[in-house]
């Protein structure tokens, strides 16, 4: 489930950007009760296509729930196994969105072997479920490139495992852009990277001599560093109402490239692939 969050975060970036345009007059493009920070809540679910584990070359489908919105000016995101809350309140008319708040991730990577097709990786055994808590800072701006209604945002998050599974931290810078094409449709792009500490590398990408005996994979000791970069795209189309209200269909996809010791791990270089693809198609409702 950890891999679901990238696609759903792209969905979240789109949902946050849409209210600004959805409140403009459809024929003239002139704002009608223009408020890019209006409170809305979007809930959705879909089918996600993702790898069996981080670094795998086997894929499967899994349900992908999500919710995003703003209540009394405070923005929140629930994206699969990831939740965050922006503690800096937005106000009507703001063009700049300063962001700061907590973030939490439940890391299920290899916490079960029943969905892993590769027998060698199954033989390595399960890894406990990591609870990663931390925070993020960021800034967004509405009206940047294509129109007064598009949005660009940049953020940096840090989270640390607090229950001793990998007992280390992950840094993640993210850049996202969304632009509406009409009152009913929009597209977005997202780019991010992750820097993981030694504990994360050892837990998920190393192979001990004992594990070599039972799995046949070569022994390997992974070190921390830049773990990956990801590029993603999203499209959304309103089936009823507009981007601010009603049902919409959302489709997103992303490509992730594993790097450095993470890509060289036998779990990736022998049993898997450093090229990781993910996709999601779902239905959402905004109210």
Q: Give the low-confidence spans.
A: 1-8, 10-34
Instruction: Report how far apart the termini are.
Output: 27 Å
- Biggest sheet architecture: 12 strands, antiparallel, barrel
The gyration radius over C-alpha positions equals 20 Å
Structural class: alpha+beta
Record field, number of beta strands: 12
Helix content: 10-25%
3D structure, described in words:
It is a single chain. With 287 residues, the protein is α+β, with helices and mostly antiparallel strands. Helix content is 16%, strand content 46%. It has 6 helices and 12 strands. A 12-stranded antiparallel barrel has the order 1-2-3-4-5-6-7-8-9-10-11-12. A hairpin with a 2-residue loop joins strand 3 (74-79) and strand 4 (82-85). The longest helix is centred in the N-terminal third of the chain and has 19 residues, at 4-22. Residues 1-8 and 10-34 have low confidence and may be disordered.
Question: Summed up, what is this model?
Answer:
This protein is of the alpha+beta class and 287 residues long. It is 16% helix and 46% strand. The protein has 6 helices and 12 strands.
Could you outline the blueprint of secondary structure elements for this entry?
Elements: H1 4-22, E1 41-51, E2 59-71, E3 74-79, E4 82-85, E5 96-107, H2 119-122, E6 130-142, E7 151-161, E8 169-180, E9 185-196, H3 198-205, H4 209-215, E10 225-238, E11 246-258, H5 260-264, H6 266-269, E12 275-286
